[in-house]
Amino acid sequence: MRWENLTDDRVEHGRAPDAALFGAEAVTTRTFDTPEFRGVTFHEIRARSIVNRVPGASRMPFEWTVNPYRGCTHACVYCFARNTHRYLDLDTGLGFDSQIVVKVNAPELLRRHLASRRWSGDHIAMGTNVDCYQRAEGRYRLMPGIIEALRDHANPFSILTKGTLILRDLDLLRQAAEVTDVGISVSVGFVDQELWRTVEPGTPAPERRLDVVRALTDAGIGCGVLMAPVIPFLGDRPEQLRATVREIARAGATSVTPLVLHLRPGAREWFMTWLAQHHPHLVRRYERLYAEGAYAPKWYQRRLTRQVHELAEEYGIGPSRPGLPRRLRVPEQSPAPDPAAPTQLTLL
Ligand code: SF4
């Protein structure tokens, strides 16, 4: 593994690093013999920086990110952050799911960064690369210190997650929301149980994630849903879309933003292998739909977006009261992305 690459934000956004940021002596490798972490290896590092700038060419609606982990035990087959493991000389398939890098000093680094006179208090987005509330967070507890630092500096932030563990930090989130702009989004692309078990095997069930939406809304923080990814031919039937939007509405989401599956290098190979095993009859259709690259065609994206927006209107999804915090918004996907362009959301 190329440990010197681990904390470089240029790696976060898909470019090769040019400087060693820390040495191999900074790494402690651990395994825990509990059912929850069986087969998972944790690589603890002391990072040199934690606030990463999103390169100017990015289409993302935020400029700064914090990512305390690399790799994700949620193990979504389609996760396009997989490719970032390649920069560490780690496997982008099972390795991404089971070799987890933990930046153990993330809270103290962030607190120092926020106190710097050079920091102007911009919005910080979390959950943009891998899930900051993946299972590892239950053991390492990095997010409480991170949220406390943001709260103490009244620094606006957003979190995108599939992890129910976020409810552990509900009080802290509430405290932060009293002093700054806090936006929480939960990712639920579908509520189909069979699809969930096979394509997102390490994640909490969709209904548990919707419980998170309900709890955050009840707590007065409010929560949007990133309906992502909508998986062509497996999760896009009208009745599936309706069931998903209906459950999102029942959970009290303040917004729903659909996003069609995209298959960037790294994720594409892993997903197509999975598809060939589980749905071999769809392989040709996928090759045609994604013939132009990582994104489904614009006509498909537009149709899907229109369907979801119509359903959202029918079910009355929207802000229930004025003054709710800012939501994470996702721009329309490009049909012809630059393969060297910075990463987007990982469809958490
Ligand atoms: S899509 Fe999100 S939750 Fe799933 S493996 Fe990737 S980072 Fe983790």
UniProtKB/TrEMBL annotation:
* InterPro entries hit by this protein: Elp3/MiaA/NifB-like_rSAM, MJ0683-like, rSAM, rSAM_sf
PROSITE patterns from the xrefs?
A: RADICAL_SAM (PS51918)
Q: Which SUPFAM superfamilies match?
A: Radical SAM enzymes (SSF102114)
Question: Does this entry carry the keyword Cytoplasm?
Answer: no
Task: Provide the Radical SAM core domain boundaries.
Answer: 58-306
Q: Keyword set for this entry?
A: Iron, Iron-sulfur, Metal-binding
Q: Domain of life here?
A: Bacteria
Identify the stretch(es) annotated as Disordered. Answer: 316-348
What SMART domains does the record point to?
Elp3 (SM00729)
NCBIfam families documented for this protein? rSAM_Rv2578c
How is this protein named in the record? Rv2578c family radical SAM protein
Query: What is the scientific name of the source organism?
Result: Streptomyces kunmingensis
Task: Please name the taxonomic classification of the source.
Answer: Bacteria, Bacillati, Actinomycetota, Actinomycetes, Kitasatosporales
